[in-house]
Amino acid sequence: MYLCEEHFKEYFERKVARTIEKYKLASKDERILVAVSGGKDSAVTAYVLKKLGYKIECLHLNLGIGEYSEKSEIYAKKQCEFIGAPLNIIRVKELLGYGIGEVRTSRPTCSYCGLTKRYIMNKFAYDNGFDAVATGHNLDDEASFLMNNLLHWNTEYLAKGGPLLPGEGKFVKKIKPLYELTEREVVAYAIAVGLEYIVEECPYARGATTLDMKEVLNELEEKRPGTKFNFVRGFLRKKKLFEPEVKGKDLKECKICGMPASGEICSFCKFWKLGKPLTFKIK
Hints:
Layout: H1 5-22, E1 31-35, H2 40-51, E2 55-62, H3 66-83, E3 87-91, H4 92-96, H5 109-127, E4 132-134, H6 139-151, H7 155-158, E5 164-165, E6 173-175, H8 183-193, H9 209-223, H10 227-238, E7 252-253, E8 260-261, H11 267-272
């Protein structure tokens, strides 16, 4: 479709509203924590949720990656001021002593960065009584995630795909309101509503597998329009094929922080060598 600016904004907002309704992502009486990075996707997620009447607060994690993180935090502040949403900031280096990329480990940087972000977002939401954590994952993100994990048959990760990961125990519900919108549409919407965002990629993202997957999918999309959407829709229809492996997994409570863990100590506390729990309760 070719739409004028006003009708494109209406189309985009209506599609987000329908996605929330179709997948039962959230209700208007729930408190939603939006993880904002300073980039376009998370900023658009916060903007649209606020415009649709949802109760939101934002959380920005400064990952301690030099100038990139400083710039990201500046953009996150600008975005939340523009949106009119409260912003909470956590600086990883102040919290844990090291920024992302400064830890001596054989583990890939993106791997422990992901672990750190997921843990802090969930713990912050849990400590402060939020009903859901919203992220800015779009259709392109989901398609590349699925392709990467299908190629490696990571069925446990595939079971966690989709627009909704229900809450369970101390795991807060995770939602993706932009699930059926492409990256191109998100960029167009950000420009249309006047949202400023950081354009630079994280320096550690260069050469990431997900970027390769996106490139392959973009080529397929160009030759066969609708490929990404059909791929993601097909996965949702067959998702149950991947679920048995994650059912019945007995999770314990981490001896240090009390959060869910597969062993005595959770991956986060083990990696960061914590001796006492972190508390994110807002005073």
